[in-house]
Amino acid sequence: MTIAMPMSKGYPVLLPRGEVFFGRTVINMMAYEFTTKLLAKQVNPLPIWVIAAPYNIKKIQQRSFVRIDLALPVQIRETADDQTGDQAVIDAVTKDISGGGVQIVTTRQWEIGDKLLVTVNYPEIGVLTLNSEVVRVQQPQPDRVLFWVGVKFLDINEKDRGNIIKLIFKKQLELRRKGLD
Q: How many domains does the chain have?
């Protein structure tokens, strides 16, 4: 079996031939872990590994969408009963993005389940305003009033989701190319 050579922080993962390792893959939106052995590797024309047939294959839980760290301006408005009313707009920034939602860095702490109207200005896509729901809240430093608020998009159309996913893959490719130069 041939796979793309794994990368870490823009550099190829170095593994000696014959080494046994664990891998993950996604097939039909289901994630799997497996064990295999590195048989060979090549860099040109594409960096690949040749691996033995996987074994000890196990289904695992995984996020539905790939995430990438990307700081983008975001405006947030809390909604109540699907009405925005006169709620103040809060400016913040994303910590990371995915096709299913964003993680926002803000000084405002919301509760899990709160409904928000989130406006993100995506490069090459434009401004998207989406009904969202808070699914995770973290306070990374207890002595600071700063929160990481994970929100999932509730009503994103598939064209917009596809454009976000394309942007993420483009940014990942740019990061890998920078790391290999």
A: 2
Segment 23-45 mean pLDDT: 84
The answer on 11 and 46 residing in a single domain is yes
Q: Which of 158, 104, 160, 105 is nearest to 133 (CA)?
A: 104
In a domain, 76, yes or no: yes
Q: What angle do CA 7, 69, 149 make, to 5 degrees?
A: 140
Kindly state whether residues 113 and 161 are assigned to the same domain: yes
Q: Is residue 179 part of a domain?
A: no
- Long-range (24+ apart) CB contacts under 8 A made by 157-161 are 160/125, 160/128, 160/130, 161/99, 161/100
Give the C-alpha separation, 5 to 113, whole Å.
40
The residue segments making up the domain with residue 43 are 2-60
Eight-class DSSP state of 72: -
Burial readout 108-124 (b: 16 or more C-beta within 10 A, e: otherwise): eebeeebbbbbbbebee
Q: Can you give the pTM of this predicted structure? A: 0.61
Instruction: Indicate whether 177 belongs to any domain.
Output: no
Residues 6 or more apart from 158 whose CB is under 8 A from it?
A: none
pLDDT, tens only, 94-128 = 999 998 999 999 999 999 999 999 999 999 899 99
Q: Do residues 109 and 145 both lie within one domain?
A: yes
